[in-house]
Write a structure and sequence with these properties.
- The structure is a homodimer.
- With about 325 residues, chain A is an alpha/beta fold.
- The first copy, chain A, has helices at about 5-15, 20-25, 35-45, 50-60, 75-90, 105-110, 115, 130-135, 160-175, 190-205, 220-235, 245-260, 275-280, 290-310; strands at about 65-70, 95-100, 120-125, 140-145, 155-160, 180-185, 215, 240-245, 270, 285-290, 320, 325.
- Chain A folds into three domains: about 5-50, Orthogonal Bundle (434 Repressor (Amino-terminal Domain)), CATH 1.10.260.40; about 65-160 and about 295-325, Response regulator (Rossmann fold); about 160-290, Rossmann fold (3-Layer(aba) Sandwich), CATH 3.40.50.
- The first copy, chain A, is elongated.
- The interface of A and B includes residues 2, 3, 49, 51 and 257 of A.
- Chain A binds a DNA duplex (16 and 16 nucleotides) through helix 2 and helix 4.
DNA sequence: TTGAAAGCGTTACCAC
DNA sequence: GTGGTAACGCTTTCAA
C-alpha cells in the first residue's frame, strides 16, 4: 500500500539494474528465469507499484480513456458510461468520466485542459454542433449517439429514423391519425432523425402534418410535461403522442396523470428509450428500446481497436448504426 | 489543439530560459512585466498546453481526485458524484469516477492500481467492512454515507438513526402499530442505524418488535418487491411499511401495485431517500429526504481543505453528520 | 541476458 | 529577475 517505492529500490534489493526490473515488469524483452523470479519476489515483498506517469512520459501512452457525456444524472448516459468503463477495464484501461452539462464551453474546457493530454482516446457524446470542432481532434475519438456529418470521426449511433418511423407507423396501424410528437431541439441527428421518421411515417400513410402537433423543446422532463399539457388543451387534441426520449416520456406520463387522462384509453403513448415510469404505469408504455449499454461497449471496443493500429493511415471514418426494437405494451388504443 | 509543443519550444521562441517560462506559468516567483507578456504571447501563439504529468513527477501533486462509489447507475450515487465533481472542478481539480459494484475485490483493484497513485485524494463510499482496510490508506480520504468506526478517517454521513426514528414515529402517531421494515444488510452504519431507529421508535412507544415484520435483504429493488409480497402474505400483514432506501421503496411500490393494494389506503408507506416512483404515484409517498448532492459537495470541500493543510499533524478524524427531513405526503393513513 | 546512460517535460534550487 | 541544471521515475537504445 505504500507509494514511495521506486524501481530503483527494487533493483537495488534484487541486485540487478533498473533496466532489468523494467524488462521483467513489461515482459517484452527476455530475461532469464532466475532473475525474473528474483525480481518478482522483491516486487512483491516491497509492494512495489510502478509509477505509470513516469512511464507515460516515455511511451506516450497512459492507458487511460475519457468518456465525455452531457449529463451524468440521465440514466441513458450512465448506461453508456457503464458499458464503456467495463470494456475498458477488461482491456486494461482506466476511464475518466467527464460531464459537460451539454455546454459547448464546458466541453471546450475539457479539451483545452491538460486532462485531454493524459488520455489515449475519448468516447464522446458531444455538445458541439460544428464539424470544425471535431475535425481538429488529434486523438482517437469515437462519437456516440450524436454524429456530426463531415466531422471525419468514427461513431456509434442508433437507428433514430427507423425507431421513430416504426413507433409512428404502429400508432397509425392502430387507427390513429391525430398523432403528436414531443421532441428535443433539431441540433443533432438524434433530434432531426426522430422527427424525420415521425414525419415520413405520416406522409407514407397519407396523413397531413399538423404544426400544432409537433412540439420542440429540450430533452428534459419538463418539456414533456408542459408540451403534453399544451397538446391536450388544443381544440382538437391528438389521440396519440410520440415522446422522443426517456425524460420527455416521463414528463408526458406525469402530465397525463395530472390531467387525469388514462394512457391507452384517453390518450395513446409511445416513448423512445426505456424509463422507470414507462415500465411502472399500467398499462405499461410501449417504447422504442435502444441498446444503451451496448453503445458504450461498442464504442470502447472500437476505440481500443483504433489505439492498437500502429499504422495510422487515416482510414475513412466508420459509422456503426445499432438497431432498435419497438416494445409493444398496452399504451396504444386500437381505434379500428 | 496540438499536444507536442513543450516548454522548451516556448522558451526558444520567446528567447528566455525554460525556468522563466515555468515561472511565468506558475506565477510564484516574480518576473518582469515585459518578459511575462512576451512569454504569454508565445504560449498563446504556439497553443502550448503544459504537460501536467511531467510537473506531477516533481511536485507530487496531480490536481486529480477520485470518487469511488459502489454503483454508478443508482441515482443516489450519481447525485453524490455530481456534487463532488462540481466542487472539485471549481477548485481546479479533475475527478476520476470509479465504480466498484460494491465488491471488496474490485475496490482492492482500485487501490492497488497505479491509478490511486495518480490522485491527490479520494472521496470514498467504501465496499470494505473492516477498519484495517481504511487504516492503511496513505492518501487523504473522505468517507461518504458509510462510516466504519475506528477507521481513523474523516467522513460525511447523514442522520440515519434520526431519519428512521422520525419515519417510524410518524407512522405510530398516525395510529399504526403493525409496522414492517424492509432494509438492507447490517453491514454498514446505514443499515444498522436505520434499523436501530425503527426499533427504538417502536420501543419508545411500547410496541413490541415482531420478527416477521423485519425484512433484511440487499439494497436493490427486487428485495423491496419480494419482501413486500412476503409481508402481505402473512396471516396478520402489517398496516404500514418503512422502506429503508430508494430502490427498496421502488420495489415496494411496484409490489403493492401488482397486489392491487392502494398506498395510503390498504397499506401505508414511508421511504428513505427520494425516488422517481415515490414522487410519481398518487398519493405521493412520504420519504425521509437526505441531502445527496450536498454530501458530495461537502466531502469534496473537506478533502480539498485537507489537501491544503501543509502541516500534516494527523488530526483526529472528523465526522460530519448532515440532517435529514421527513416529507409527509398522503401515503400514510390515519388510523385514529 | 544484462547494465549504463540518455532521455521524456517539467520544477526547483542555486548562481549570477 | 533570469538562466543553468539536477532531479522526478521510468523506458529504451547501445554496448558488453
Amino acid at each position: 500500500m505504500t507509494c514511495d517505492i521506486t524501481i530503483k529500490d527494487v533493483a537495488k534489493e534484487a541486485n540487478v539494474s533498473v533496466a532489468t526490473v523494467s524488462r521483467v515488469l513489461n515482459g517484452l524483452d527476455r530475461v532469464s528465469d532466475q532473475t525474473r523470479k528474483k525480481v518478482l519476489k522483491v516486487v512483491k515483498e516491497l509492494n512495489y507499484v510502478p509509477n505509470t506517469m513516469a512511464a507515460s512520459m516515455i511511451t506516450k501512452q497512459t492507458q487511460m480513456l475519457a468518456v465525455v457525456v452531457p449529463e451524468i444524472e440521465n440514466p441513458f448516459y450512465t448506461s453508456v458510461i457503464k458499458g464503456t468503463v467495463n470494456v475498458a477495464k477488461e482491456k486494461g484501461y482506466h476511464t475518466f468520466v467527464f460531464s459537460t452539462n451539454d455546454s459547448e464551453s464546458e466541453e471546450d474546457a475539457f479539451f483545452e485542459s491538460s486532462l485531454r493530454r493524459n488520455v489515449d482516446g475519448i468516447v464522446l457524446i458531444g455538445a458541439h454542433k460544428d464539424p470544425e470542432f471535431y475535425q481538429k481532434m488529434n486523438k482517437p475519438v469515437i462519437l456516440v449517439d450524436r454524429y456530426i456529418d463531415g466531422c471525419g470521426l468514427d461513431g456509434v449511433i442508433i437507428d433514430n429514423f427507423g425507431g421513430a418511423y416504426e413507433a409512428t407507423k404502429y400508432l397509425i396501424e392502430y387507427g390513429h391519425r391525430d398523432i403528436a410528437i414531443i421532441t428535443g431541439p433539431q441540433t443533432f441527428n438524434d433530434g432531426t432523425e426522430r422527427h424525420w421518421g415521425y414525419q415520413q411515417a405520416l406522409k407514407d400513410n397519407g396523413i397531413e402534418l399538423v404544426n400544432d402537433y409537433q412540439k420542440h423543446g429540450d430533452w428534459f422532463e419538463n418539456n414533456g410535461y408542459q408540451s403534453t399539457k399544451e397538446l391536450m388543451k388544443l381544440t382538437k387534441p391528438p389521440t396519440a403522442i410520440f415522446a422522443a426520449n426517456n425524460l420527455i416520456c416521463q414528463g408526458t406520463i406525469k402530465a397525463l396523470r395530472d390531467l387525469e387522462l388514462t394512457i391507452g384509453l384517453d390518450v395513446s403513448l409511445v416513448g423512445f428509450d426505456a424509463n422507470d415510469l414507462a415500465e411502472f404505469v399500467k398499462p405499461r408504455v410501449s417504447v422504442v428500446k435502444r441498446p444503451t449499454y451496448e453503445m458504450g461497449t461498442h464504442a470502447a471496443e472500437m476505440l481500443i481497436e483504433k489505439l492498437k493500429q500502429v499504422d495510422k493511415h487515416d482510414s475513412f471514418p466508420k459509422k456503426v448504426t445499432l438497431g432498435v426494437e419497438l416494445l409493444k405494451f398496452g399504451s396504444v388504443k386500437y381505434l379500428g
